[in-house]
Write a structure and sequence with these properties.
The protein is mainly β and about 70 residues long. It has one domain. The protein contains one helix and two strands; from the N terminus they run ββα. Strand 1 and strand 2 form a beta hairpin. The longest helix has 4 residues.
C-alpha cells in the first residue's frame, strides 16, 4: 500500500508513514489519506481526520523515516 520511500508528513500524522494508507489526490489538488484497513474492519474510518496521532492499526511502511529509526543502545 502507500508509496515506498515517502517522507512522513507531520500534517497527516501517522497516516503518512503507515503501510495501510494510500494517498488519494482530487482533481483540485487536495490530498486525502485512504485507510486500506477500513475495507475489512469498520472500526477504522475510510478517510480519517488528520492529523492522526494514535492508531491501533498503525504499521510503519518500509522506507519511511519512522520505520528505519533504530533505538539507541
Amino acid at each position: 500500500m502507500g508509496g515506498a520511500g515517502r517522507v512522513p508528513d507531520p500534517a497527516a500524522g501517522l497516516c503518512s508513514a503507515c503501510r495501510q494508507a494510500r494517498v488519494v489526490r482530487s482533481d483540485r489538488g487536495s490530498r486525502f489519506y485512504l485507510c486500506e484497513r477500513s475495507r475489512s474492519d469498520p472500526h477504522y474510518p475510510m478517510y480519517p481526520r488528520l492529523p492522526v496521532v494514535s492508531c491501533d492499526g498503525f504499521e510503519p511502511e518500509i522506507g519511511t523515516l519512522k520505520a528505519e529509526r533504530i533505538p539507541p543502545d
